[in-house]
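User: Round two. Same drill as before: sequence, then structure, for each protein.

Assistant: Same drill it is. First protein:
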Amino acid sequence: MTSPGPIQYKGDELRAERGPGLGCFRFQLIVLAFVVILTPLSVLWHWPDWLSAVLLFIVIGLLLVAGQTIIFLLRLVAADRRARRRPLGSATRTVGELEDEQRSDAPKDDPNDEGPVQQ
């Protein structure tokens, strides 16, 4: 079984420093919960129809944004776990650790050397 390599995001290796964080996601969920509760109440309280419609479209938009954010965050978690994974009962190094060791030992004189290319 071969190692699948790092998780790619927009053609580059996925790094945790990039993109939305957990705080951004929590804020999205709080706003989403508030608007989901407010939307049916706006109908009950006889607010103008256009305002209830706007709230409904805001709910749909927030569902899209929060869904994309959770997918991104799950990919970050998977990338982090893949980078640090070690079998529990193994006393030997993993393939990924051996590859990292080879990369760190390799001379970096040639700036055009991109290393092995996966296809």
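Second protein:
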Amino acid sequence: MTINQPKITGYRQLSDAEVALMNEGKALAEQCGAYIAKLRGPIPDGQSPTGTAPPLDQRWISIGATDLQRGFMAVIRGIAQPTTF
């Protein structure tokens, strides 16, 4: 059964299977986002006097976040197959 979606210029109607794949990808992206948020916060270690580990390299955390976002956008686009630029 195909879901009757509002017409968006440059996009086609998605099948139930495609909608499920998009929703699965969105859920995985949310999990990755939560992981990145965790990496951006204090990391408990229980051994140092402050109780936290030395800060992580936030430059690389940000690069990783950007690359993950780009990757998820690419696979979602691969599912949606828009016909416009």
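The chain has two helices and no strands.

User: Perfect.
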